[in-house]
Amino acid sequence: MTPEEPEPGPAPAYASPFDDDVVARAFGLSRGSEEWKSHVRRAAATPMAVVGDLELLRPLGGNAYGMLYAARERSGGAALAVRRLAVGKAAGVAVRVGAMDRLALGGFVPPGRCEMIDGRHYLVRPWAEGLSLDAHADRVRGSHPEALRGMLAVLARVADGVAAAHRAGIILGRLKPENVIVGSDGAPRVLDAELACVWSEEREPPPPPYARPAASAGASASIDDDLYAIGAVLFRVLTGSEPGAELSGDDPALASIADRATRERARAIIARAALESAGGGYPSALALADDLARAAREGVSAVSGVVDFLRRRW
Amino acid sequence: MGTPQDPGQARSTSATLLKRLRAGNDASAWREFELAYRELLLRFVLSRGFQHADAEDVVQAVFTKLVRGLGRFEYDRSKGRFRDYLYRCARSAISDATSRPNPAAPGVSDSAIAWVADERDDQEAFEREWVDHHYRRAAAHVRASAEPRTIAVLDAVLAGTPPAVIAKELGMSEDAVYKAFQRVRDRLRAQIARQVREEDDDA
Predict the structure, then answer these.
(1) With an 8 Å Cβ cutoff, are B139 and A18 in contact?
(2) Would the pLDDT of A264 be above 80?
(3) Which of A137, B13, B28, B136 has the fewest CB atoms within 10 Å, i.e. is most exposed?
(4) What ipTM was assigned to the predicted interfaces of this complex?
């Protein structure tokens, strides 16, 4: 196929001498050349590295426990997420992965399995299809009034999952929007809970802004850490902004929530999530989940939207 | 951490990113920089004969060098392109890794030990990886934004399917298949041009 006949229309964006030189020669994109097709094929098909039965496709990011990769099983072709565990971290992770796997918590991505390949430890789990919660929120926020309601409902399900973890004696300690995947069915699932647990056990202070200041300062892990994190995640998904160093229901960024009823409910939920449970905060993740679910059912009202509009107008 | 983000979505130019990184304490700038360049660096180091785990360590060393060097570094395109700077950091990190006192220590493969300072060979390898890097980003961008049918045409053409068969399978005319193919090729070309321009844009 050589579809290279002259094309009418405006000059393309690559027509400057610099672009012409670089794009046309280095990239095999000269008119009449078919070389670019082999570039596209190769770029798409070549795994970055092969480790045992795993093809590592691209890095996704890393933390103290090692770099995470999008990967594929060579023998079966299954899509995977693979983390090469950092030296000294494998033993703790293996124990926690086994424990989490036995619990089979709903609302959590299964932890997968630890493997030793070529003398190195890898944590291998099925690929979790979907968008991270922050990306999901950025996509739907402002699209229609029901979108806010949907985000509150998603957070309620996350809080339900966290409540189940608490009942099993697990404190996550490091919940953040990037670690929640929203599938095409709208259901959220928490990623890497096993790593969060090991992290908490090692008493490494979690970083702000999703960690409560006391935890970042070295306080021991408690359910308050997760309740605070859910409040901070709620702030992020509703406003599109990162929460400040100290979560507050009076944060000016909350004024950006257009629907008044949702805004006021969000303020109240965030303010309470920021408090310690012994000091007027939520007594449990379940109580927080109930409040979020109620706000999702009642928070967005067309009437309050109209009232807001009229107030701004007059 | 497990966000399957699309590397093609990184938006800042390298110069802008470098400015943000130099300003310090900008975690999102680091994430963006890492997202944009870690794969390129890993692939380059792997192409020099390192095992995967060793390559990760070398790339981490490249990022460390970048952090240390950024305080002194002023981006000036007249003195070189951004990718030349990245290449020099990578080559220096490889050189450090292979010239350790005990190169036979665990973590450094024989092939990496055999790495010789062939500047020309390294530079060509880096250039190849850089081209592929831009193709990957551009293809991800085009795939995310083009019509599903246009992508189906592209995939079929890349798989070597004749236009007449594509037209029949997708319920299009052959002329429409040619046009869809041209469209996606032009978008790819424009996107790569944009990426390259942004990479060296010091405005």
Answers:
(1) no
(2) yes
(3) B28
(4) 0.78
